[in-house]
């Protein structure tokens, strides 16, 4: 029989190989985990690199597309600006041509009316001579064959007798013939032109510059100076901010407006002058909904100022592409319209 010591040694000797195997297994598992983690990292790194490369390509494509769209937008904006400028110049040209044709038509109409009046006077004189000529006492001026041979004068062609001519002359002398329209003579004022040129270099709506300050003092201010001072100031601010609206008033029935709208004046009373006038138009300041009836004279004054501000806004925006002197004379024409409107002159269609 083996001793107890002999039994214990074999048991102790059997435990050592098992421990080595477990340690080797653990080391193997750790190495496998490390290798798998390294593979995962490598695959993940490759995947991220591919994704990054793909994203960079897409970003470059998008940058190119954005650049192309930006160029297209700039081209469209330039074409739109040129089209707007050409349309404005064409509209201004059409207005000038229409005014010229209207002036020529009015001149022709006055001349035609003068000729008609002269012809009517001539016909009246002939009728008078015919009535005074009877068979018993014929008018020798109408019947030259009744004159004595010594007084008879042979005339070749058609000729009017003296009585007819004298009657026509006397009748025509009572008719005031229209004066011919004289051509305007223009001369550039050196001070005004220098102020306009200085303003044209850097156009602004700030009225502190010498160009606009003069026009405010001499034209805009007086033209918008109405009896109702508080309302006049509101109108001036609305014109400067381009928020004033002018609309016609229905002749038969008053237009329906909002409940909160306040209507000042009336179809028979001007809100700006306070005088009893027939008001064919009304104005609204901004989006307030408040309507004010205005007379034709007040409308002409407001319209003249609005036309001036519209033109200088177009110049400021670069939409007017003309010679500086032509723009200067257009500004002077608009200033003259404001002066005439202030003095009470306005078209009959107002």
How is the topology of this model organized?
Blueprint: H1 4-132, H2 162-173, H3 190-201, H4 210-223, H5 229-240, E1 244-248, E2 263-264, E3 281-285, E4 291-294, H6 296-316, H7 324-342
Parallel strand pairs: 2-4
Antiparallel strand pairs: 1-3, 3-4
Helix pairs in contact: 1-2, 4-7, 6-7
Key descriptive features of the protein:
single chain; 350 residues; mainly alpha; 4-stranded mixed beta sheet; 4 strands; 5% strand; elongated
Task: Offer a quick outline of the entry.
With 350 residues, the chain is mostly helical.
Describe this structure in words.
Helix content is 63%, strand content 5%. The protein has 350 residues and is mostly helical. The chain has helices at 4-132, 162-173, 190-201, 210-223, 229-240, 296-316, 324-342, and strands at 244-248, 263-264, 281-285, 291-294. It is elongated and about 160 Å long.
Helix content: 55-70%
Distance between the termini: 144 Å
Q: SSE string, helix = H, strand = E?
A: HHHHHEEEEHH
- What's the tally of helices? 7
Strand content: under 5%
Q: Look at the helices and sheets and give the structural class.
A: mainly alpha
> What is the CA-based Rg, rounded?
48 Å
Q: Tell how many strands the DSSP assignment holds.
A: 4
The poorly predicted ranges are 1-14, 143-181, 252-263
How is the biggest beta sheet arranged? Answer: 4 strands, mixed
Strand order of the largest sheet: 1-3-4-2
**If you average the pLDDT, what whole number results?**
79
Task: Report the principal-axis shape.
Answer: elongated
């Amino acid at each position: 029989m083996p001793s107890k010591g002999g039994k214990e040694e074999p048991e102790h000797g059997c435990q050592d190989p098992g421990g080595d195997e477990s340690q080797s297994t653990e080391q193997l598992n750790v190495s496998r985990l490390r290798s798998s983690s390294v593979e995962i990292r490598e695959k993940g790194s490759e995947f991220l690199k591919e994704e990054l490369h793909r994203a960079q390509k897409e970003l470059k494509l998008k940058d190119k597309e954005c650049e192309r769209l930006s160029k297209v937008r700039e081209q469209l904006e330039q074409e739109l600006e040129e089209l707007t400028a050409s349309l404005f110049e064409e509209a201004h040209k059409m207005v000038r041509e229409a005014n010229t044709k209207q002036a020529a038509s009015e001149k022709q109409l006055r001349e035609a009316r003068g000729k008609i009046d002269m012809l009517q006077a001539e016909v009246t004189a002939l009728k008078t001579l015919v009535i005074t000529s009877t068979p018993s006492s014929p008018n020798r001026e109408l019947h030259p064959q009744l004159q004595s041979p010594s007084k008879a004068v042979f005339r070749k062609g058609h000729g009017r007798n003296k009585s007819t001519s004298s009657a026509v002359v006397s009748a025509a002398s009572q008719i005031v013939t229209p004066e011919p329209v004289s051509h305007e003579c223009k001369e550039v004022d050196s001070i005004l032109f220098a102020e306009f040129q200085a303003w044209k270099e850097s156009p602004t709506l700030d009225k502190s510059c010498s160009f606009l300050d003069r026009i405010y003092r001499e034209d805009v201010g007086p033209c918008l100076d109405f009896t109702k001072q508080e309302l006049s100031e509101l109108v001036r601010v609305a014109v400067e901010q381009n928020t004033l609206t002018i609309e016609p008033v229905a002749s038969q029935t008053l237009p329906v407006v909002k409940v909160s709208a306040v209507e000042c004046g009336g179809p028979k009373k001007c809100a700006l002058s306070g005088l009893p006038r027939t008001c064919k138009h009304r104005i609204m300041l901004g989006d307030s909904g408040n309507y004010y009836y205005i007379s034709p004279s007040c409308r002409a004054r407001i319209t003249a100022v609005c036309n001036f501000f519209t033109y200088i806004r177009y110049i400021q925006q670069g939409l007017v592409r003309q010679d500086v002197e032509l723009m200067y004379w257009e500004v002077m024409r608009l200033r003259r319209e404001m002066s005439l409107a202030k003095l009470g002159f306005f078209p009959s269609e107002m």
